[in-house]
Write a structure and sequence with these properties.
The protein is of the alpha/beta class. It has 12 helices and 16 strands. The protein has a 6-stranded mixed beta sheet with strand order 1-2-6-3-7-15, sandwiched between helices. The chain has a 4-stranded antiparallel beta sheet with strand order 10-11-9-12. Strands 4-5-16 form a 3-stranded antiparallel beta sheet. Bound molecules: zinc ion. Residues 85, 118-119, 152, 183 line the site of zinc ion (ZN). The site of zinc ion (ZN) has 5 residues, from helix 4.
């Protein structure tokens, strides 16, 4: 308890808001979208080093720089990672903002600007917690690690698109036993799982002929139309939820539905709930045929199937095979082209220590017990879980305003989040 008090005393309530504001003022659009994270990485490194902690730089080229730092406790013990990403999505059309997108202005209890919510607010909070541990000279065992990613916003399930965190974890340069990611879940919600992105490429083969004698050919595009209809029906089935996630799915449905209503999209509420136990299907790309007067002999379609809890990639594959067979269309094949690290959904068990410690400390610090939730798409937590690190999202202000115009984060939430992280870290790192 003494440790908690001493760390909490070092959480600067004003500093965290100022830090968030300064972070927003450095545009750091994801390098994959033409941006650059070198300047913000330099700023963060200097900010932390001025306060006396060492920061390691991992330059991945192409203006993509990840940072890590580690505070070592007295004895070996659990290793807890605090995570934030410093990249943001592009601002879009400047005239659609009612303030300059990178102003970082603090007004009416909010920090304003692109990335304030997703997630420079959370990033400022984890940095503040980390520094508070350092300044308080807190006694703990194990390690507290800070990991700052430059490329979360371009997360792609395909090989090569998995990003810096995957590289760092895979190479062993970053190691941990659990991770708290300060993504904007809202302080009343902990996201413990994410649906999986299972991407497939479907190929239909036919036989070419002149358009005036179609009976001599076999139209690959028409075959594809039937096959796509068949595959799409995978989205109609309710997927049974694993028993340990039933409550999380139920609360996720309520949250999703409420969020739609709050955004004035009441007619989308049912659809939002449905995502939690159904496959979402997107036919994203299609190519076929050579000329208008030729019966096409080949058609290729690419689909993103987003798999809910309870349906892994292997079973999804079997279902699709059966649906194609049932359609009766011949000469159709498909392959998964999202890599080894994608496909199946991932989750951290509700009983994991990192979930429990954050939940309990949110209750102690803020007087609220966060609900557990499942997200409808993957981000960096998915990579961490696949590398064996139980991971959750817990951060300031709800996700609804992320990537939108007039983005903002609640200033008061920043120190609240930092305090919960601090207390959760003390408990997590406490000797067993
Ligand atoms: Zn984010």
């Amino acid at each position: 308890m003494k440790t908690k008090e001493s760390v909490l005393r070092c959480v600067g309530e004003k500093e965290v808001v100022d830090l968030c504001s300064r972070l927003v003022q450095i545009p750091s659009i994801t390098p994959a979208y033409g941006g650059d994270t070198t300047e913000i990485a330099r700023f963060i490194k200097e900010y932390l080093e001025q306060k006396g902690v060492n920061v390691e730089t991992h330059d991945f080229g192409s203006r993509t720089v990840a940072l890590t730092s580690r505070l070592k406790g007295r004895l070996t013990g659990p290793r807890l990672i605090l995570y934030g990403h410093m990249d943001v999505v592009p601002a879009g059309e400047a005239e659609r903002w009612s303030f300059p997108p990178f102003c970082g202005e603090i007004r009416d209890g909010k920090v304003l600007g692109r990335g304030a919510l997703d997630m420079k607010g959370g990033l400022a909070s984890v940095m503040t917690t980390y520094l508070a541990f350092h300044e308080a000279d807190a006694e703990f065992d194990g390690s507290l690690i800070l990991a700052i990613a430059p490329d979360e916003e371009k997360w792609m399930p395909v090989e090569g698109g998995l990003g810096t965190q995957w590289s760092l974890l895979k190479s062993g340069r970053l190691q941990g036993d659990a991770c708290i990611m300060a993504e904007p879940s809202g302080l009343g919600t902990i996201t413990i799982g994410e649906k999986g992105e299972y991407w497939i490429k479907v190929t239909a083969k036919g036989k070419p002929a002149h358009a005036t004698s179609p009976m001599l050919g076999d139209n690959a595009i028409e075959k594809m139309m039937k096959v796509l209809d068949a595959i799409r029906s995978i989205g109609e089935e309710i997927i049974p939820t694993p028993p340990e996630l039933v409550n999380a799915i139920q609360s996720s449905k309520e949250i999703a539905s409420r969020s739609m209503v709050e955004q004035g999209l009441k007619d989308k509420a049912e659809g939002a709930k449905r995502l939690l136990d159904h496959v979402a299907v997107n036919i994203g790309e299609i190519q076929g045929g050579t000329m208008t007067n030729v019966v096409p002999d080949k058609c290729i379609a690419k689909l993103a199937l987003v798999l809910p809890m309870g349906l892994d990639a292997q079973r999804a594959r079997e279902k699709i095979e059966r649906l194609i067979l049932k359609s009766g269309v011949s000469d159709v094949t498909f392959e998964q082209f999202s890599g080894e690290m994608a496909g199946s959904p991932t989750y951290t068990k509700p009983t994991e220590k990192v979930v429990k410690t954050v939940q309990e400390n949110a209750k102690q610090v803020l007087g609220i017990t966060p609900q557990l939730m499942i997200a409808t798409g993957p981000g960096d937590a998915n990579v961490y879980r696949r590398m064996g690190v139980p991971s959750i999202y817990y951060g300031p202000t709800g996700f609804a305003g992320a990537h939108s115009y007039d983005e903002w984060v609640s200033a008061a939430d920043l120190s609240s989040a930092a305090k919960v992280y601090a207390c959760a870290a003390v408990d997590y790192l406490a000797a067993n």
